[in-house]
Structure formats: C-alpha cells, structure tokens
Amino acid sequence: MSKIEINRITNANIYLDGTNLLGRAEEVKLPDVSMIMQETQGAGDGG
Source organism's superkingdom (predicted)? Predict the structure, then answer.
C-alpha cells in the first residue's frame, strides 16, 4: 500500500469556532505530522 502525503491545501474556507465563515485561504502549507501509537489492554471479560 502506498503512503499518502498531503503537503498543502488550496482554496480552503476558513471557519471560526467551526461555524462562522471567516474567509478563504489561497494556500495553506501543512506542518509535518507524526503518528503516536499507544498499546492498551482490556480490564477483563466482564461476564
């Protein structure tokens, strides 16, 4: 499976608090993002 890389977003709507349209961005360059994985265990069967 090939790795998907997103480096920038073009012609994006910018929202304030997720509801109010603040404006449009011509281009937004994204920072490098790394994944953090954490292993967990269940507490038991429960039954």
Answer: Bacteria
